[in-house]
Specification:
127 residues, mainly alpha, 2 domains, 6 helices, 0% strand, rod-shaped, DUF8040, DUF8040 domain-containing protein
Amino acid sequence: MMVIIFIICSYFSDMDDQLEVVDNQGDDDKKRLQMIKIGAGLYVHHFIKYNFKEKCRTSSLSGYKWVMEVLHGHYIVCHEQFRMEISVFIKLCDTLHQSYGLEKGKDISIHESVAIFFVGVRACMWK
């Protein structure tokens, strides 16, 4: 695919040279070539944007491992999932544990409990 993009870009750079030649022929031909160049550029942009998508949120993890992946991953993912920065989420978990007595359960950690709450809140916000 990168080869196709390279070929298209080199074609457009060649068109700039053609525009200089056309300059002597008249404004109508020059405008026509510019419109073709703009149209082709928009088509290439659209093709790349909508046909080459990277998969997102493809984690096969769940529970505690998923929460740790979110907290140790990209900061934007944490903000999307929990609506707060990583440092704020960790500080909140520590505060809930130390000041309010939130304890880990038999099979669930404090981080996982808080994450479940915020994922639920996020789901309710979108309805």
